[in-house]
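Chapter review: from sequence to fold.
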Amino acid sequence: MDEMDAGLSWWEFAALLAGLSEHSVWRRIASEEPVELTGDAVAAAIDNL
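The token string follows.
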């Protein structure tokens, strides 16, 4: 977040994400279908991060 506060633009941030390996956690999560969580499932999902 310090980099964002220091002036890292959204486009630079997006470029960094695009450069991540296909084996990165971000790419694995981003490639999955979105899941809508409600109620207790939200807290459980956050606890499992």
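Two observations follow directly from the output. The radius of gyration is 14 Å. The chain has a mean pLDDT of 82.
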